[in-house]
Amino acid sequence: SLYKSALKKHIVSKHTNPKDVKWFKCGHCSHKTTQKGHLQNHIIAKHTNSEDVKWVQCEYCSHRTKWESRLKNHVKLKHTDPEDVKWFKCEHCPHRTKRKSDLKGHILSKHTSPKDAKWFKCEHCSLRTMLKDYLIKHIKLQHTNPEDIKWFKCEHCSYKAKFKADVKKHTISKHTNPEEQYENSISKVTF
């Protein structure tokens, strides 16, 4: 689970002598990780030809992914009846979400006093935020050389973006015909 993964990472980084860590090393580059699954994800993402990847296709829309777990998450978020979803509920207000990480962001932004929050500061400018993911995105957008970024490219044209979600939005708006878009929106409502 996500919690176990984060706990293991914490224990390894804070309480384990580096000599005692069992590392899984990439055979293609210097990347290493303490989790075998993460190494497999790295190899697929960085060192596998897209033609050689076994893609898994959503049965309700045109979405596809290299990972079965991400497909399950996609189906839960996009195509599952709200009655069948495990919702993460805010303990302070009626807000609820399908993602645990979204609930954390909601609680920080809506129910956390600035003086009680852990702040993440940008080392390049005056920005500070309670959300680590936002800081990472900010640094990638504002302070990273274009040559150092892993760009996500459209399969149909020369468009590229710093974030995969932006390419997905582009593909839907520019390369999906209106009938498909309509069918996908209907399937989301009637599943």
UniProtKB/TrEMBL annotation:
Keyword entries, A-Z: Developmental protein, DNA-binding, Gap protein, Metal-binding, Nucleus, Repeat, Zinc, Zinc-finger
SMART domains: ZnF_C2H2
Domain of life: Eukaryota
Domain C2H2-type: from-to ranges: 24-52, 88-116, 120-148
Cellular component, GO annotation: nucleus
Keyword Manganese recorded: no
SUPFAM superfamilies: beta-beta-alpha zinc fingers
Keyword DNA-binding included in the entry's annotation: yes
MF (Gene Ontology): DNA binding; zinc ion binding
Cellular location(s): Nucleus
UniProt-listed GO biological process terms: segmentation
InterPro entries found in the cross-reference section: Znf_C2H2_sf (IPR036236), Znf_C2H2_type (IPR013087)
Known function: Gap class segmentation protein that controls development of head structures.
Record family assignment: Belongs to the hunchback C2H2-type zinc-finger protein family.
Descriptive protein name: Protein hunchback
